Write the structure tokens for this entry.
Amino acid sequence: MVAVDQRPPMLKAIGEKIAPRQVGYEDVAPVKAMLARSLTPMGSAVLIDPDYGFSLAAGSIPADRGLLITLEDFRFEDTPGGRKTRLPEGWDVGKIKRMGADGVKLLLWYRPDCSPDVVAHQQALVRSVGDACARYDIAFLLELLVYPFQGAANHTTDYIENKEKYPELVLQSLRDFADPSYGVDIYKLESPVSADSLPNPDENTEEVRKAQEWFNKIGDIIDRPWVMLSAGAGMEQFRRVLAFAYRAGANGYLAGRAIWWTAFGSYPDIAAMERGLQEESARYMDEINRLTDQLAPPWDQAPAMAKGVELQNAGHSFPSLYAGFGSQAA
């Protein structure tokens, strides 16, 4: 599945190219529409934001592909005790359902070692979104990201992988939301190990075995389908993430920048961007799709599915979301 819902990274990159003019909707929306038009046909679904992306890209999304809409406001409250995610004013699960979407994605900045009030806020938000998705009969995808605290040497508010994250923080974050009462249908997860530090998964070394153990623990924690995010990783780094994850039971990917960031770098040369998407991005997506088909178990073979437990809130919207899964992965 392809993600084109990124806002801060895209706003920042475009802003640097057109400075001193301030970046606006008219700059970002056409780029998102191009990404959706070029890449969605190669995936089973597209994830897009409702503020900059959807309106102009809607006509470019094939009817036989799933439509996922991001719900979180990209502006979060960064406190000494941790980050508090919020929903954008005027947007909720009901509105996303009325748009005709197949799924709701919520990005949650989360650390289990945050202050109690921050942990309680984040957990309550996930539970409220899960309840709303059940009420409106729409799929709920939860994205979890570990981040550096204020005051840490590597603190940043950019949407990038925390290179110094501890694998146990990633795993404990997942444990905190593994309970079915949260109503999560699909987990969108980061690598428990920094993508840049992952060894070649095809080598037979102790380093490879240790990295695989961290990914295997994900499958021990949850029994629902899970897919990998790229968090801005490079193409080769994300290939390695997927190989480790698929061997641990991941069912696919939901990624953006690993696929299209190189082509995006040609902005504002739109023609060069389109060539990059049609050539390098398309080749890369074809490669990771083949890797997915070869290694990833189909989503309906997740433990909960194999036991005869249906996806939470499964309904008429799921056939389009899971178009392309069937006998293969996402």
